[in-house]
Amino acid sequence: MLKSSSQPITGVTIDSHQHFWKIDRGDYGWMGPHVEPLRRDFLPEDLRPLLARAGIDRTVLVQAAETEAETEFLLGLAAETDFVAGVVGWLDMDDDGFPERLAQFQENPWFVGLRPMLQDLDDDAWILRPRVLRHLALVAESGLAFDILTFPRHLPHVIEALKAIPGLRAVVDHLSKPAIADGTLDPWRDHMTAIAAFPGVSCKVSGMVTEAGPNWALADLAPFVDHVATAFGEDRLMFGSDWPVATLAASYGEVGHAARALLGRHFGPEGMAKIFGGNAERFYRLA
Fold first, then answer.
1. What family is this protein classified in (predicted)?
2. What is the Cα–Cα distance from 180 to 221, expressed in whole angstroms?
3. 142, 153, 242, 286: which sits with the fewest CB atoms below 10 Å from its CB?
4. Contact of 209 with 217, CB cutoff 8 Å
5. Banded pLDDT at 10 (limits 50, 70, 90)
6. Using CA atoms, how far apart are residues 276 and 75, in angstroms rounded to an integer?
């Protein structure tokens, strides 16, 4: 199935954050024994029935390995999977060849954004390296989306990068993985308020159950959702399942139910339609 660049997908529900992987590809370095249930293949036909059950029409497929080979693999899956609307890939932003690689991948209509795995890098301030900032400016100029994968300790550096590249269209993945299991809101709360002050930055309501742990309850998640709901509002929030990572703590249906229950306390039907579809379509410029 070929993607049309001229026909919008308005009116459908969108999961803004899910993954696929094929273990024998061999580049998922983060998959250690601590995530043993994830060390198997997760592919489109595994997700398809779950989407149907949850009433989700389309998805945004996000990278899970720091290699161009995985990005190529995901683009190939997107081209043959009817429910995938776009791919957020990986390129080495600290490499001199980045501008040429970015231009090449932009030619692929499924390539809608970039995500460096900031949470896994040794340098918490990596995003502020001069070469990375220069290349981040190219991402802003390109109009591509930029996914921010961080822990709360990274957020002060992200704020400085956003100040340096004011035109960047970015989204914070997984609420920046706050310490939900411990109920620790600060200083995460102030940092997220500062990030929300940048009008081009959104937030994914995703990844919460794994930060809360297998015995999570809605009450554990509520203070964190309440804060981003107030800070970002209905126009800059997106639902994401983080499937299959989320299966460490919840089913696909449970993740969707939790998001709907908690966000529904803040937003009416129009706002919920944006969060569960329209915002992702607009942010990632899906078609």
1. Belongs to the metallo-dependent hydrolases superfamily.
2. 7
3. 153
4. no
5. low
6. 23
Query: Looking at residues 29-56, what average pLDDT do you find?
Result: 96
Domain of residue 255, CATH code:
3.20.20.140
pLDDT level of residue 287 (50, 70, 90 thresholds): confident
226 in a structural domain: yes
Report residue 236 CA to chain centroid gap: 13
Range(s) of the domain holding residue 221: 14-284
Q: How far apart are the first and last CA of the chain?
A: 13
Mean pLDDT for the chain?
A: 96
Q: Residue count of the chain, please give it.
A: 287
A 10 A CB-CB count for 250 gives 21
Give domain status of residue 2, yes or no.
Answer: no
Tell me what pLDDT residue 4 has: 39
Within a domain: 4: no
Say whether pTM exceeds 0.85.
yes
Q: Provide the CB-side half-sphere exposure for 71 (13 A, CA).
A: 21
Decide if pLDDT at 67 tops 70: yes
| Whole-number Å distance between alpha carbons of 57 and 36 | 29
Q: How many domains does the chain have?
A: 1
* Domain membership flag for residue 158: yes
**Could you tell me if 175 and 202 are in contact, meaning their C-beta atoms sit under 8 angstroms apart?**
no
- Are 3 and 109 contacting, i.e. CB atoms less than 8 angstroms apart? yes
